[in-house]
Amino acid sequence: MKKIMNSLMLSCYKATELIEKKSVFPLNRVQRVQLFMHTQVCDACRNYQKQSELLDEVLEKEFRALNEENLSNDQESDNQRINRLSERLDKEKFS
Amino acid sequence: MTDKSTNKRTLLNSWVSLYASHLHAWARKRTSDQLLAEDLVQDTFVAALHALDGFEGENPKAWLFSILKHKIMDHFRQKYKMQFVDVGDRQEDVLDLFFSKDKSWSQDRKPGDWTADGEELLDNEQFLQVLYNCMEQLPEQWSLAMKLKYLQEIKGSAICEDLGISQANFWQILHRSKLQLRACIEQNWFTP
User: Fold this and answer.
1) B108 in helix, strand or coil?
2) Are B75 and B156 spatial neighbours (Cβ–Cβ below 8 Å)?
3) What is the set of domains in chain B, with CATH numbers?
4) pLDDT digits (tens, 9 = 90+) for A70-93
5) What part of B 122-151 touches A (C-beta under 8 Å)?
6) Engineered SS bond to B138: which of A11, B49, B95, B142, CB 3.0-4.6 Å?
7) Are B142 and B169 in contact (CB under 8 A)?
8) Prediction ipTM score
9) pTM for the whole thing?
10) CA B105 to centroid of chain Cα atoms
């Protein structure tokens, strides 16, 4: 039993790494159990997880807003961009 | 100009009007950089012009997208791969700072309790300023990895492909970045 417990217990370093992995890739079942068990007993990592997810949420919204701003500024210059592209192609030497 | 090259140009022109906007929008999402996206799309059409003789496919759109995709990958790799390779030493430094030998939190680095919820912070200009300042203090390739993560159109595996790094390397970079970012914010916002 002790052996099984040990194999399931993560260090804080590993636990926080899994928290970040989880934000971009799915965890497997063992990892999910390990992380759950660790955050049950470790206040610091529970704080970390909450705060990390909060920062993700804030940053995601921020970047989305920035991106939409870029997009709306973008419409008018579409034609100009295509003109610049055509000019560049005109300069290319033909083989 | 010979007839043949005039034909080429006519064909290319039709592709420009059909696909250039779409290619640009895609490149911009993927790089979050307007001007870089324009450069990459131009490079794509120039490459297409020179490779046109070899193009036998029926789907010019897919062909142009695949050229663009490689241009984006080349760009990121050229710019950041060297830095990713030697990131090892710095990673260890950061980890030693946060964790003790047994890999639990260093006594003075334990995350404290923040008394805040997201809605509150999102509307708080001063907090966002602190957040941006802390982001800027990250090494360039780390903040790039984070930026790409938050651009929602891109999946994790595609980011790794663009950057030329493994998936494990990607979340390890995110881990270090977040440790630093979180600590910076705690220090500059939550500590009186």
Assistant:
1) helix
2) no
3) 3-79 (1.10.1740), 86-190 (1.10.10.10)
4) 666 666 578 888 889 998 988 886
5) 122, 128, 131, 146-147, 149-151
6) B142
7) no
8) 0.78
9) 0.72
10) 30
